[in-house]
Structures are given as C-alpha cells and as structure tokens.
Amino acid sequence: MRLSLLDRSRTRAGHPDGDALHDTVARARHAEQLGLDRFWVAEHHGVPGVASGSPPVLLAAVGAVTSSIRLGSGGVMLPHHQPFVVAEQFRMLDALHPGRIDLGVGRSLGFTAPVRRALRHDPGPDPEAALASGAEAFAADVEELRAHLDGTSEVTVRPATGRTVPLHVLATGRGLLLAARLGLPVVVGGPVLASPDVGDALAAYRAGFRPHPGGPERPRVTVALDAFVADTAAEARELALPEAHAMASSRTTGEFGPLRSPAELRSGAWPEQVRRRVDAHLDRTLAGTAPQVRAALEELVERTGAEEVLASTSTWDHAALLEADRALAAALTGS
C-alpha cells in the first residue's frame, strides 16, 4: 500500500501565517525520511486557515530541502490560471528537481463569493449554467495543459527538459469521466469517496479509460482522506478534533479558520449544532490504533482498487502531526 501526504499549510491560532509554510517544508523533509512516496501541497485562496495559495512557489521551497521524494500539487485550480503559465511553472520545477514533479489539477472556484469575485469568477444570474460551462472549460484547459507539457502544442514551453510532468485529476463525478477519456490518473476524496456509489463511479472510470501516448497505460486511482494513528482510538480522535471543529464551525460562520488546540476547544461551550457536526466529522475520520487504521485502509483499498493512499491529515501541534505521520507509515509497513 503506497502512502503519500497532502499538506494544506494549515495556520494555527496565535501563530503567524508564515509559520504554517515553514511547518510544511519541515513536514516534507520528515516524509522523505520516512520513505513515503509523494508529498503534495494545496491551493486555497483567501482562507484564514490555509497559508498556501501558490503550489509552485511552495514546491520550490520543499524541493530545495528534499532530494528523492516526489512532489506535487493537490492541486492547481485550473480555472484561476492560464494552462501555458502552469506548464511553464511546472517545467521549471521539473528542471530544478528532475523527475520528481507531479501536477494534480482541479476546478474549485473559491471558498466564498468575495474570493470568487477577486479571482474573476462571477457565476452571473444562472449559476447552474455557469457550472456546466466551467466543466467544459476545465476539460479544454486540461487538454491544452497536457499538450504544453508533452510538447505537442504550437508553443514550446521553456525550459525544455525532454521529460513530461505527469498529470493527475482531482476528480468529482464528472471529473472521473474526463480523466477516463483523457487517460489520466485520478485522486478521489471527499464526497465522492464517501458516496455509496463510489465503486460504480470508479468502475465507470476504469471501463472508459483510454490510454494516451506518453501517459499511463492503465487507469490509476489514489484515495485521499484523513487518517490518524495513535496509541488509543481516543487519542487519535483528539488529534483529529481541531480540524473537525474548524470544519463544523465554518458551516455556521462561513469562515474556515485557523486550528485551535484541543484544550482551548474543550474549555469553551459549543452550540449544539456545532457539537453534532464535530461528532459526525470525527465519526467519518479514520482515527484509531495502528491495527484499526491498517485494517480500515486495507478494506478501502480492496473496495476501490486504489494503488495509493494520500493522507490529508492536519492537527494543532506540529510535533504531534509528525509523530502521527510516523505512526501511520509504521502501521502500513508493519514496522
């Protein structure tokens, strides 16, 4: 079972946002020492709880302190960028860190309406029509981006390296069909992974997969989820609490805020609605002892046919997060 990490550069209450970026770089170095396969970073704009809005910039910093682990984006949101510019950025990364760069792409338009307006994404009077149009534009952008990366476009992207940068699609239901048609690997998480129909959706992806020259010969699935390992299930759930509370509170306040310590969270009163949402989030999170988490991941891999697990965990204490990464890696290797 291949294990990789997705780090979202989560900010922490009472700490400068920049600390989150330094923590990401340190975590990548630790992931390499653990022998993990990949380390991916995210793109979020105008979110108080996330410091990383530019995967290429952050990956350059991560690449400078690592030497072997593969690095990637989970992912670059193509609606915000010109495909040619994205190709240039990732070709530069590949030239600096040869053969170690992956490019995951998605199509999120932004967390809130003001952020979407700042990013020049106004859905106008018909949001559903805008969403459908956006899906078509995303498909065209992915095809254009791949042409720039594999050298078949009318413009040569510099620096020329003689290599292509592997593309991955962060897939929704429609994204799975696009990835199948284009012959691209997929990363599946969130609502798609939690759906009871995920098996059917992945079967359709595999059935519709059409290999593309220079790409993978067969369909490839990575599953992304939060996974916490500790000495007891209760301790693992406590590690997951800060993220669960931030997520639950965001649905009430409309703001996804910095992580707060479990002690601070436990000391305050929670609205009943927030409490229910926290409990529901924790119940969906894979948190337990090493044998419990390993068994659950083996079942998930069996059910989805995934080749790789991408752990997107975050918690309040950076040292505790590094220990959780070590425990998860040990759980999957049996060491």
Tell me what the structure shows.
By secondary structure, the protein is α/β, with parallel strands linked by helices. It has one domain (2-227, 289-333): Alpha-Beta Barrel (TIM Barrel), CATH 3.20.20. It has 13 helices and 10 strands. It has helices at 17-34, 55-65, 83-96, 113-118, 127-150, 173-182, 190-194, 198-208, 233-253, 262-267, 272-284, 290-304, 318-333, and strands at residues 2-7, 38-41, 70-77, 101-106, 167-170, 186-189, 221-225, 227-229, 286-288, 308-311. The chain has an 8-stranded parallel barrel, surrounded by 6 helices. A two-stranded parallel ribbon has the order 8-9. Strand 3 (70-77), helix 3 and strand 4 form a beta-alpha-beta unit. The longest helix has 24 residues, at 127-150.
Relative strand content: 5-15%
Biggest β-sheet, characterized? 8 strands, parallel, barrel
The topology string of helices and strands comes to EHEHEHEHHEHEHHEEHHHEHEH
| Amount of helix | 40-55%
Give the strand order, joined by hyphens, for the main sheet.
1-2-3-4-5-6-7-10
Number of domains: 1
**Low-confidence residue ranges:** none
Q: What is the gyration radius calculated from CA atoms?
A: 19 Å
State mean pLDDT (0 to 100 scale).
92
Within the CATH hierarchy, at the fold level, what is the topology? TIM Barrel
